[in-house]
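Fig. S4 source data, part A: sequence.
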Amino acid sequence: MDEKELVEACLQNNRNAQRDLYNRFSPLLLGVCLRYTNSQEEGEDILIEGFTKIFSHLNEFRFDCSLFNWMKRIMVNTAISHYRSNCKKQDDLSLEEGHIREVSVESPDAKLNEKDLLAVIQKMPKTYQVIFNLFVVEGFSHKEIGEMLNIQESTSRSQLVRAKNWLKEKLKD
């Protein structure tokens, strides 16, 4: 079944098609969610919340991009919403300017596989993690990140520099 047929079957409340859509895309989308969390459980929570949004808004999908890209955008937005709600609940690093020492490591000798790198990224301070993922992985501009997180563009830039320096320092160890 191609994507268009799958979406149409899902819209007709075909449970097998809905299960197929979930099974086909959930492993990839869980990877997206895990980049914005510190644990597997939190990533799975975001995945479930994101799929709830996907199924409730599937009628809005217009096939002007790939289904995966449309779903990925929903997952990223769900992860950002999750981040925002958690920031209100817990103390985190401020997005404002602060002191951090500069680290200049051109290329760490450590060779990490994808799983190990994800584990290191998940240990980043939350603000660094979110901005790093939005810019480096998802490809958003600092202006877009600023609008998403309700911060200034320059704050996004400085937090990205700090995230990269933090990551370089951890990869040295």
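Fig. S4 source data, part B ends here. The chain is about 70% helix and 0% strand.
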